[in-house]
Design brief:
2 copies of one chain form a homodimer. Chain A contains 22 helices and 30 strands. Chain A is an alpha/beta fold and 698 residues long. In chain A, strands 9-8-11-10-12-13-14 form a 7-stranded mixed β-sheet, with helices on both faces. In chain A, strands 20, 25, 26, 27, 28, 29 and 30 form a 7-stranded antiparallel β-sheet that branches. In chain A, strands 2-1-5-6-7 form a 5-stranded parallel β-sheet, with helices on both faces. In chain A, strand 12, helix 6 and strand 13 form a beta-alpha-beta unit. In chain A, helix 9 crosses helix 16, helix 10 crosses helix 16 and helix 11 packs antiparallel against helix 13. At the A-B interface, helix 3, helix 4, helix 7, helix 9 and helix 10 of A face helix 3, helix 4, helix 7, helix 9 and helix 10 of B.
């Protein structure tokens, strides 16, 4: 990451993508050497230009290329011969561009794997090391501000937009800006791994279309946890259209959204859904490094109308706005006008603008309020008209003074909506005092929630055995097939998953015999590995109360299945003791091609089918995480005994999930889907029993 | 609204709230006369200052007051004597400030009611008529832009912030800015009524803490529908804290959120939840006055990373991004670089910046694409650095040219996130060509959805009998009580609501007799108007299959109720024929103190209790609206026959809702709550039957 001699191939005197890589280091005072290389020119931006890599005065250790894609693999191979150890490929036309491009990208990947060339890109803007002034970065960046935030983005445009906005508008400094495009060589996970141990970096923001190294992602997240460093990710690709778009943009497979959500969440990675939320979250996390344990927020505003809005926005995302203590209210009444009505959110009223003493006293009171952990001050900070009224400058000074005088409360400022230039005479002094300035009530509240949840994640004990050794990329075996019933029961039994007592019968006689042994009433089911949904083909009869009923059911089931699924191989009949009570759950395992298997859990029946109410986690699971999964289901109240039912055996359900996770771990590369549908969760103390199952294995 | 002589009471040479009202008309060139009035000064801002209202050269027809609240009622009474017909009360200290303030506000309300004084405020910024330059408005507004958007806001600060942002950043012009504070005299509804018929206004944006005249609101919304004029409302007060905050801010009762949602929705009023969404929606609606019927959106971006994000954002809010037609793709391929991958969202790629001919041809192609109704172009438009690169200026010209050349497609532009000043050399030419500039992908997609839904609302036939004559404010009778069973059955029967056949029995003998008549099995229930939830006190026995079972159940029910609800008066027992099937719904009526009764509908059991999945509409209802209510429930698939059930009689359920609405209309002022819980919706063709009910009436 720290080259001393950079060759830039494809620059021209006209400002193009490569020329910007020559201009930026000059602007920011890079100490190393930059060699433009282009046979057409003798000089570019006052630097001598060389016809090829071999003719530079010293061999370049990093080359930046912005030439037609088809020429890139050859030029890079030459660069390696010439001693280059790293390359930034700005050119487009690789994996995002159909099969020809894919072949080119494969050539780059071979150079990386076989020749050890570290490639950033292709189809990217490159890397800007702000402190070093090392700007192998193809965007117009003349003013930079060093600081603790690193931005990693597949998209070059977003890397620049995010960085620019943080530095110019929010007075937030950056350590690195990295745009890695198609990730042919170095991946997002590699850059994050570097940044997590970088001394200048305290917060990492990532714009990702897809990950390439899931195990490394989890490992660097674990390292970030040790260093208490937040990683904020905006992951694109939730919709099918977006997944197609990421393929077209950076040739990236976006992955299964629910499984990626689970990975990020379990890794303590903060996930945001909009760029405004990203900007506010990074701004807050870059500043908010000391705080109390609690997160009760008191809002102060000079706009009465904001008070109701802030309360609604806080309520929507689950931020607690406590009542001010009685003594704080009394203090506020003592110096605020009669018509003021001190509460939280606290309305400074027009008096705040007319009497300069009121605002500092309000802050002082809230910063001493015993029920307040966070003071969130709403004030406009747009650039005033020339000579216009700018009361927020005075407020910013008062806030900075109060923070400098010492407080253990987190103090943040925010506008009611995002838009228009921020007054740096407001934002600047606040930033110097460590007070972040956020834009829009909604994203400010989300940012506070993210900071709170990240802090809570750090406070929780590290789950046992969360990390095995890196296992490389999961490659799903292509030839998975459903196990037959005996194999499936053996595998589930091996992991201690409790199944309804089931006997395999070859025909009606054996079924009656089995039913006698199990005790009536019984359930009869078709036994066929070719049938995933038995009820749909008439393959299930419940409540068979005696021998006659079993015989009848056996005949009818076989007849129905022959009629409705004529090609299915019928292995026989399954006879189960009937379980009449319990809450129906669907639990199982779902696999992502890259991330591998995840454990899923939802309520049976309408909840899964109609509401898609499902919790997902990556194995391994501990009991606490399994309980967290269950609690997060919208219907979880049902298990606690809603509607007059007895409380269900949630511990047994959690235990089943932990066992499923162990099974998923053990058969990671062979496993396809696995369903226990339904798993009946019985009354507290009576356990949980799977009554039907389906296992796909290679 | 059009005064010629304005007196301003309470101004001083130091810029205070009243002085601004003197400064603004001067800045914007108001043609009428302004008389500062303050006994302490001889001149303010170069205008002669008068000691009192009696000494102005001509009597003022409008007075603006910014004096301590306690003096306001007296001064206004004097103003009325002096000929004033209207007043703007900037002062705070009224209904928002406890009981003393409430008395002052009551005095203003009497002046309005008895002396015909039209009062704006108190606790407001006043009114700015932009075209007339009539700025009785207490905020620093030196530059204004006339145009079609009217802003009405209880909060003065927000009225200014919204107006400023629209005019300065978005190049959107305004007709009126109205801040009406506590609404002691003229209400939001009154202002909207005026604006709906104002020739200069085409879109109305409202920031409301609470409404005062619900019937007028519905009537002005109906008038707006006739004029195809959208009204966009940001309503505060969803959370309990926010409801307290609105009381403290403008002394406003926020009302029941679900019922207000229903009123706004049925009136075709667009509801937004954030100011950024408000700004984008107003900007879009102010421009988007011609379009095709469809709303299929094609997104074009010069930022590849935006394509996936835009697809996700569109998917989240239900905006359709169709595939480009094959011929459009072929055309795009003909002039775009090899590595481009034309699809929707369409990535212009780096080539768009390097070859100026590509962008206009892309627009041209999409504007001819047969599956595209709306072209949404993503591009940054922040003010460039001095001498910096500003490609969007060229794109803006190309877009304006293309629109001027004629297209029936709606064209909009948007940024990826909101923040920083917009380049008026981009936004200005776009605005002149009728192309709105929106900030942030997420709010742009929401704005498009709002525009679509508003247009669809206008296209739907006006529901029959939606409007009766105005009925004034609903005043709920305070002495509502539960009806006894016979009265309740009579009332429900009168409106044709089908009830399970039910016989009232005085004791076990009568119950057995009734059961014989009804046919077994029967359900026995306690009959007591003091018991709202019969099951909770052991007051229900289902499935009584014969005389003995009925006798036992009767004894046990009475014993259980005596034990668990010892104070309840027991009127007897209810015997019902048992209905074993059907989908359990809860339907009924809920009342808001101001808006009156609303019809509610949800699934019984866990859906209502756990998920709070309820649809709400105001009466009267037509069948189409009742069907819309049902369709909007998350569980509605259950009624269509999910999970192997037969389809339910949705028409009968809808009919029950229409009948409940008629009942609610007829007993509007007497009705409290009404519950049919459960209403069993039987198989298609078999109807819907209420099996338990509770009616509260005055």
């Amino acid at each position: 990451m720290k080259p001393n001699r950079i060759a830039v191939i494809g620059a021209s005197p006209r400002m193009n993508r490569a020329t910007r890589v020559i201009a930026n280091p000059k602007h920011v005072g890079y100490a190393g050497l930059v060699f433009p290389s282009n046979p057409k020119y003798a000089e570019i931006l006052d630097l001598p230009c060389y016809p090829d890599l071999g003719s530079t005065p010293e061999p370049a250790d990093l080359v930046v290329v912005a030439i037609p894609a088809e020429q890139v693999p050859g030029v890079l191979a030459g660069a390696v011969e010439n001693g280059a150890r790293a390359a930034v490929v700005l050119s487009s036309g690789f994996a995002e561009a159909g099969s020809v491009g894919e072949a080119r990208q494969a050539a780059l990947e071979r150079l990386a794997a076989e020749r050890g060339l570290r490639i950033c890109g292709p189809n990217c803007y490159g890397i800007f090391d702000i402190r070093l002034g090392l700007a192998t970065f193809s965007a117009d960046m003349t003013e930079v501000r060093p600081g603790p935030v690193a931005v990693v983005s597949q998209s070059g445009g977003f890397s620049q937009a995010i960085a620019d906005h943080l530095m110019q508008q929010r007075s937030v400094g950056l350590s690195y800006i990295i745009s890695c495009g198609n990730q042919a060589g170095v991946t997002i996970e590699d850059y994050v791994e570097f940044l997590v141990d970088d001394e200048d970096t305290a917060v990492i923001g990532v714009y990702a279309e897809g990950f390439r190294q899931p195990d490394k992602l989890r490992h660097v997240a674990a390292r970030a946890r040790e260093r208490c460093m937040p990683i904020v990710v905006l992951k694109v690709g939730r919709s099918e259209n977006a997944r197609q778009a990421t393929l077209a943009h950076t040739g990236t497979l976006a992955g299964t959204p629910e499984i990626i959500d689970a990975v990020l969440r379990q890794s303590g990675i903060v996930q945001v859904t909009s760029l405004n939320e990203m900007l506010d979250t990074l701004t807050l996390l870059a500043a908010a490094r000391r705080y109390r344990r609690g997160w009760r927020v008191t809002v102060l505003s000079g706009l009465g109308g904001e008070c109701g809005r802030a309360a609604d926005a806080a309520d929507r995302v689950g931020i607690e706005l406590p009542s001010l203590s009685a003594s704080s209210v009394a203090t506020l009444r003592s110096f605020m006008p009669d018509f003021a009505n001190p509460r939280n959110p606290l309305d400074g009223t027009g008096a705040m603008y007319e009497n300069a003493e009121i605002f500092p006293r309000m802050i002082d009171t809230v910063l001493r309020d015993e029920s307040t952990d966070v003071l969130a001050i709403n004030m406009r900070a747009n650039v005033p008209k020339p000579g216009g009224w700018a009361p927020s400058r005075g407020y910013a000074r008062a806030i900075a003074d109060a923070v400098r005088a010492g407080t253990d409360r987190l103090v943040v400022c925010f506008t009611s909506f995002a838009g228009a230039d921020l007054d740096q005479e407001v934002v600047g002094p606040l930033a110097e005092a460590g007070v972040p300035y956020l834009e829009s009530t909604e994203t400010a509240m989300l940012a506070l929630r993210h900071a709170r949840e990240h802090r809570r994640f750090l406070e929780r004990p590290v789950p046992a055995a969360v990390l095995g050794s890196p296992r490389g990329t999961h490659v799903a075996a292509p030839d998975r097939h459903p196990l037959d019933n005996t194999e499936a029961m053996r595998l589930l039994g091996e992991f201690g998953i409790r199944l309804a007592e089931t006997v395999v019968a070859r025909g009606a006689d054996e079924a009656v015999e089995a039913a006698h042994r199990l005790g009536y009433p019984v359930v009869l089911k078709i036994d066929s590995r070719d049938i995933a949904h038995k009820t749909e083909v008439g393959g299930v009869r419940v409540g068979c109360g005696g021998a006659t009923a079993v015989r009848e059911a056996a005949d009818e089931i076989v007849a129905a299945v022959r009629r409705l699924a004529p090609r299915a191989r019928i292995e026989g009949l399954l006879v189960q003791r009937m379980i009449a009570d319990g809450t129906e759950m669907i639990v199982g395992i779902k696999s992502d091609p890259l991330f591998g298997p995840a454990v899923v859990c939802g309520f049976g029946g309408i909840f899964v089918e109609v509401l898609r109410d499902v919790a997902v986690r990556m194995p391994p699971l501990d009991a606490a995480t399994a309980h967290e999964m269950i609690a997060e289901l919208r219907g979880s109240a049902l298990l606690k005994g809603a509607r007059g039912r007895p409380p269900a055996d949630v511990a047994a359900l959690a235990d089943t999930l932990v066992r499923l996770a162990a099974l998923a771990e053990a058969h990671r590369d062979r496993l396809g889907a696995l369903d226990l549908n339904p798993l009946l969760v019985l009354e507290e103390g009576r356990g949980a029993v799977a009554v039907d199952w389906l296992v796909e294995l290679a």
